[in-house]
UniProtKB/TrEMBL annotation:
It comes from Roseinatronobacter alkalisoli. This is ABC transporter ATP-binding protein. It comes from the Bacteria. It holds the Pfam family TOBE_2. Keywords: ATP-binding, Nucleotide-binding, Transport.
């Protein structure tokens, strides 16, 4: 099947007085794995459901493969959706669950069998076709839900927090499986999640939402390296955001520390420093003095919170076996690599 692109134009939706989508514009390219990332209540699910055709009709346009589908009922949109809850029929076998959508579409029986087998084979569950959903693990149930959705050969796959009922280890495994399935099928896919690691590791590009507004769209790395505002900086990974102003090619922090930055001509009032751009240094080389207020042993790294004149700064250092690092209360000097830092107006 031809890969379909999605275009969303000026989409607005309110529930009573509450604005949930406030003018969404975006384009999702054919064959792309795209994530909607944002905190709880940011409007991700509402946006996904609007694409699927569930919920009230939003204002604006939704185009799939160039056709406006905003007035079509869900079953005429050629999209397949997988829910967080899986929504399998408990009284049907795995095979019957996967066949159900095809039967509903009145596909001839002779074609249904092979399509069901192919879909189950794709998710590695053909050998469990006669089981009931209650006889499957959470991860297996999720695969059945996926098989059922891809069996109908949708143009677009919509995934609403599909991994959130799984334990941490299985989530990591399933997100890899999901990506490899998506790559195999080349299916334009939208994945809703509030988990930045999940979005980072799966998506080609993502949109970060807050308050029903898209804050930024880009690849995971673009969003991490060059966030456009403090919300995106803080939502994608850990960020130290220091206030100050620009002066002669340096960012001067409130605490009076001068941080060199490359090729920046704007009037920034904040600088975003990732924890790995800050290191602990000896007296001569360090530029900011502080005191360790908190330390967290993370295995491969030790994370220090250091109180300074510029507020608390988070520093990640590599942990080497046998070395104890700094204790809470220790006086330390921080060295900052600010050249690639991003600056916010
Ligand atoms: N049917 C509804 N009636 C009234 N308000 C609703 C309805 N559905 C969603 N909302 C509100 O819309 C806002 C966005 O909800 P939505 O489910 O899209 O957020 P989300 O980003 O997907 O959050 P979560 O991760 O918690 O699912 C929330 O404030 C929610 O309370």
């Amino acid at each position: 099947m031809k890969k379909a692109g999605i275009r969303i134009e000026d989409l607005h939706l309110s529930f009573g007085d509450t604005t949930v989508l406030a003018g969404i514009d975006m384009e999702i390219y054919p064959g792309e794995f795209f994530a909607f990332l944002g905190p709880s209540g940011s409007g991700k699910s509402t946006l996904l459901r609007a694409i699927a055709g569930f919920g009230p009709r939003p204002k604006g346009r939704i185009l799939i493969d160039g056709k406006d589908i905003a007035d079509l009922p869900p079953w005429k949109r050629n999209v397949g959706m997988v829910f967080q809850s899986y929504a399998l029929w408990p009284h049907m076998t795995v095979r019957q669950n996967v066949a159900f959508g095809l039967e509903e579409r009145r596909m001839p029986r002779a074609q249904i069998g092979p399509k069901v087998e192919a879909a189950l084979d794709l998710v590695g569950l053909l050998h469990l076709a006669e089981r009931m959903p209650s006889q499957l693990s959470g991860g297996q149930q999720q695969r059945v839900a996926l098989a059922r959705t891809v069996a109908i050969e949708p143009q677009v796959l919509l995934l609403d927090e599909p991994l959130s009922n799984l334990d941490a280890a299985l989530r990591v495994q399933m997100r890899r499986e999901l990506l490899s399935l998506q790559r195999k099928l080349g299916l334009t896919t939208i994945f809703v999640t509030h988990d930045q690691e999940e979005a980072n590791t799966t998506s080609d590009r993502m949109a970060v939402l807050d308050g029903g507004v898209i804050q930024q769209i880009g690849t995971p790395q673009e969003l991490y390296d060059t966030p456009v505002n403090g919300f995106v900086a803080g939502f994608l990974g850990t960020a130290n955001i220091l206030a100050g102003h620009m002066n002669e090619g340096c960012f001067v922090t409130k605490g009076g520390n001068r941080l060199a930055v490359d090729n920046y001509r704007g009037t920034a009032s904040r600088i975003v420093l990732r924890p790995q751009s800050v290191s602990l240094a000896d007296e001569e080389r360090g530029s900011i003095a502080g005191k360790v207020t908190h330390r967290e042993f993370l295995g491969s790294q030790i994370r220090y919170l250091v109180g300074t004149e510029d507020g608390e700064i988070i520093v990640d250092t590599l942990h080497h076996a046998g070395q104890s690092g700094h204790a809470v209360g220790a006086d330390v000097m921080l060295m900052i690599d600010s050249r690639s830092a991003s600056l916010l107006d």
